[in-house]
Specification:
With 159 residues, the chain is mainly alpha-helical. The chain has one domain. The protein contains five helices and two strands, in the order E-E-H-H-H-H-H. Helix 2 runs antiparallel to helix 3. The relative contact order is 0.11.
Amino acid sequence: MSARNSCTGTNGTVLHCNTPKPAYVWTAESSLTEFIGSPVGGYDKVFLAHFILNWCGFGLTLFAFIFSVCTHYNRITDSMAAMATGLAFLVLLAVFVILIVVAYRVIGLTHSHNATVKGSIGSATWLILGAMAALLLATIYYGLGCFFRAKKARTYEKA
């Protein structure tokens, strides 16, 4: 989610690195264009959407965390936290789909130009998948905690 860049080189020696930029469009890299023989364009807005959606998912998750910790776990705040984590899950699902689609399109494009090239999705994709699973579990936890909670006894009912 931070600023990204790319470096190029040969035989394990780095020759050049670009300046880090947020929402880095790695499909516009000159080394990829040289390898494929044609530019891979049209992904600027997709990478910007990916960058923004990552931060939206983080913000929703942070909102749910702060809400549940600072309000001492009552039914209304648990339902708000369940909605926030559910929405964050959907946002990260969109981020995951964007990552998978772009990665496999570029891998397929490079493989069609050179059959010896192999590509794989990076560790950031698995990090998003883990965050999605955690948000799904948090949504289930908050939802169950909201609807299947033992009722508190009132002070006049105890006597």
